[in-house]
Design a protein that fits this description.
Elements: H1 2-6, E1 11-17, E2 22-27, H2 35-44, E3 51-62, E4 68-73, E5 76-80, H3 84-87, E6 98-107, E7 122-131
Parallel strand pairs: 5-7
Antiparallel strand pairs: 1-2, 3-4, 3-6, 4-5, 6-7
Length: about 130
């Protein structure tokens, strides 16, 4: 699994803890990691991913429908799943303020069947780490 994930574009380092059942993937300095590719690489390695949590830094923006998103690069953003933490960031929408959040991008649906990666990943904010 370490090799499958380590070969993905934008990945600098992969640490696997079998005891904890966790994998930490560190991106390259200016690298962008595609969550769908990481999920596919995980399944291709023969391992089932239960969930994918991320720490991300970006700006809060409003999308075309008025929902909130975390823009992590000029052409890359993650829609935010509405919750109390995301509502607390509404005032930062379309401002120059950067936020760092810890959130969940993926949770395996119930059942034993191999799930298809979602067409779009929504970020459920679990913790707001920093506003700057």
């Amino acid at each position: 699994m370490k090799q499958h994930l380590g070969r993905q574009s934008g990945v600098q380092n992969v640490e696997v803890s079998l005891r904890d059942g966790k994998v930490d993937v560190t991106p390259k300095e200016d690298g962008q990691i595609d969550p769908a590719q990481l999920l596919k690489a995980t399944y291709d390695s023969g391992v089932t991913a239960a969930e994918m949590d991320v720490t991300a830094r970006g700006k809060i923006v409003k999308d075309q429908s008025g929902g909130l998103a975390l823009q992590v690069a000029p052409n890359r953003s993650f829609m935010l799943t509405p919750n109390e933490l995301s509502k607390g960031l509404e005032s930062l929408a379309d401002t120059p303020t950067f936020v760092t959040v810890r959130g969940q991008l993926y949770q395996k649906p119930p059942g034993k069947k191999k799930p298809e990666p979602p067409a779009t990943f929504k970020l459920l904010i679990l913790e707001v780490l920093k506003k700057e």
